[in-house]
Write a structure and sequence with these properties.
The complex is a heterodimer of chains A (108) and B (217). Helix content of chain A is 61%, strand content 21%. Chain A is an alpha+beta fold and 108 residues long. Chain A is elongated. Chain A starts with a helix and ends with a helix. Chain B is 76% helix and 2% strand. The relative contact order of chain B is 0.16. The N terminus of chain B is likely disordered. Classes of the chains: A alpha+beta (108), B mainly alpha (217).
């Protein structure tokens, strides 16, 4: 039977931000967190996601306002630049805080 | 907001962020270009001191480093600043991508670090001028100073190559000072040894980097 502290942690577990929580998107946001910006190729290599998968998760993050995507050119080569927005950084920080709060309430 | 149950602990996430930060910092040195450029700059400085050490006393060439050193360093740094991005845009970024780490240090922090470096430099110069014979240890100070900068970069980027280069710089500086060569010859050997080591390290890093397989889509 869970004690009071464990019971209190359970609603927190259910209430995490799923846009951040999804493993591929969490990998993207974790990679972007210490960066000003990166291009698509760097994210592709750093996360190990396929290009299609990475592209679809970036679109999801962009529509949530968590990343900003700029499509431009480097010479004649298309270049996709990705940066975490303030909202994305705040959501990621809130997600980390939520995980810490849950961990603090659970028994060792 | 959509919700779900968490599967990763906070400490695991913190570790992954630290890993991502190290990866981004190391990314700038993986292609070896920085060491190749640094090696070339050190070898140019060594060439300058070689000319000075071979020049007859009293000739214009005997004092060439006084004017030539700032020129070589300035031109080298400007050329590196202009050429490195071009080089990387053509070769490195299409292969490995490009990431810009967030700047952590504040202006106040930079000012304090600059002031501390200036105080140490002035203190070292005053100590060298006041003690006869202390100038012989100038190569050791230069080697330790360059080594300190390389060690800081290496620690930030998690690059073992840069840390080894830092140790090499300090060791070469101490050895050259201990041998007791004439000033220009000592500086020539110090920068030649540093330049050659940086160049070899950079070329080896570049060879490893270019041998890596490209990722499939």
């Amino acid at each position: 039977m869970p004690d009071d502290a464990e019971r209190a942690a359970i609603p927190d577990m259910v209430d995490v931000d799923r846009i951040v929580h999804e493993p591929a998107r969490l990998a993207i946001l974790t990679t972007l967190y210490p960066l000003e910006e990166s291009d698509f190729v760097y994210l592709h290599r750093a996360t190990g996601l396929t290009k299609g998968n990475l592209s679809s998760h970036l679109s999801r993050l962009e529509s949530a306002g968590y990343v900003a995507i700029e499509k431009t050119y480097r010479g004649k080569v298309p270049l996709t630049l990705v940066a975490m927005t303030h909202a994305g950084r705040a959501a990621f920080d809130a997600y980390r805080d939520r995980l810490r709060a849950i961990a603090a309430r659970l028994p060792e | 907001m959509e919700t779900a149950t968490p599967s990763m602990s906070a400490s695991e996430l913190d570790e992954r962020i630290v890993d991502a930060e190290r990866h981004a910092a190391a990314h700038a040195y993986e292609d070896g270009y920085a060491e190749i450029v640094l090696g070339a700059l050190f070898l140019a400085i060594a060439a300058l001191f070689l000319v000075e050490s071979r020049a007859s006393p009293g000739t214009a060439l005997a004092g060439i480093s006084a004017i030539g050193l700032p020129v070589v360093v300035l031109v080298g740094l400007l050329a590196a600043r202009a050429l490195l991005p071009l080089w990387r845009e053509r070769v490195t970024y299409p292969r490995e991508g490009h990431a810009v780490p967030r700047r952590k240090s504040s202006r106040a922090g930079k000012a304090v670090a600059g002031l501390a470096a200036a105080i140490v430099a002035v203190g070292a110069v005053v100590a060298l001028l006041l003690r006869p014979g202390a100038m012989a240890w100038l190569p050791a100070l230069q080697g330790i100073f360059v080594g300190g900068l390389l060690a800081m970069l290496g620690a930030r980027a998690g690059s073992r190559r840069l840390v080894v280069l830092a140790a090499w710089s300090a060791a070469v500086g101490l050895v050259v000072a201990a041998v007791g060569l004439e000033d220009a010859a000592a500086a020539m050997w110090l920068y030649a040894a540093l330049g050659a080591a940086a160049l070899v390290s950079g070329v080896a890093a570049w060879a490893r980097f270019s041998a890596r397989p490209r990722m499939a889509a």
